[in-house]
Amino acid sequence: MPKPPAPDSRLNLSPADWLAWFDGSCKPNPGACQIACILQGPDGQRITHTQAAGHGDSSDAEYQALILCLQLAQRHVAPSQSLRIHGDSQVVIDDVLARYGKTSALLAHYRERCLQLLSALANTQTACDLQWIPRHKNIEADQLMRAQS
């Protein structure tokens, strides 16, 4: 299994870098999942994507939203640029980063996929950082996701 990414010392964000936000939810919990991602590029470009994501619980939805975000980053973030990804799921961010020395066995397949995508970005010299933010600071991704549900 790949190791979780260490904080990237190259990640001193400048106007030439990318930002991203992801969110996922399900109604009821568990229930139908909806996910959203926003990428904001250095030239002001915005890429948004939202989609249904099958059936699961809130952690399934949040992880699938992060995977979507990483897949979009692979297509749009140029090699050697930096990317900071924001999400309001402490569970998912902590699980990917293996904080506190443990990970969830139930979420292992999602974590493995995220680590593969992060590794692929690192192989293109793309510095990537995951950052937890409170829900009220993730309002745009949340609104995008809810508009599609």
UniProtKB/TrEMBL annotation:
Domain (RNase H type-1) ranges: 14-149
Entries under InterPro entries matching the protein: RNaseH-like_sf (IPR012337), RNaseH_domain (IPR002156), RNaseH_sf (IPR036397)
Record-linked Gene3D superfamilies: Ribonuclease H-like superfamily/Ribonuclease H
Domain of life, per lineage: Bacteria
Classification via CDD domains: RNase_HI_like (cd09279)
Pfam families: RVT_3
Example of a GO MF term: nucleic acid binding
Protein name according to UniProt: Ribonuclease HI family protein
